[in-house]
Amino acid sequence: MPVEGPKMAIVTALLPVPLSVYVFAFAVIFFPRLVLTRHFWSDEQRREFFQLEVTKALISGEQLLSTFGSPSPSDENRLKPIDKLDTSEMLLLHGMHSMYPLPGAKRRIEKRMEVLRALDNLMPSAIDGFNERQLIFNCYIRKIDIGKKSESEMRDSLRQYVKFTSRMPNNVYLYASPLFKQK
């Protein structure tokens, strides 16, 4: 997997230089693999990146749940709603949802929950039609640990996740991924 830090540092340093925009435009046109690295990732590289991001998110989620005393999904009153979280818990929540703690992030997390709920309602009828790339992406957006699972195992994980989260209230659904992993 390509390391993007040095590339970003070079771009950040050179972009303010006059006429450097033309150099980058030239590079995008004639050397896209050097500039647009994620666009050209193989399925294996994409899966590796998604797994790394899910692992980071689940670590934040487990740390967040440990601040509440490692509750189970049935302990609804121990899982705080988003507006009752303190600053350190909010930072862990942002990490769990792979979001930067910017202004308006609380609303973005709430919208993300709404969208995932809507997708979860459509999911049972669509899971069987997913190819491996779609399965990996759907596991990634829900922060489901896929490790080295096969397509059928990912389908089963998605089905179990949808069943697990189907009756969760919003304050519990906020923590669905680490709770699902604990299950």
TrEMBL record:
Lineage: Eukaryota, Metazoa, Ecdysozoa, Nematoda, Chromadorea
This protein's name: Letm1 RBD domain-containing protein
Keyword Transmembrane helix on entry: yes
This protein's UniProt keywords: Membrane, Transmembrane, Transmembrane helix
Membrane spanning residue stretches: 12-36
UniProt organism field: Caenorhabditis briggsae
Keyword Membrane: yes
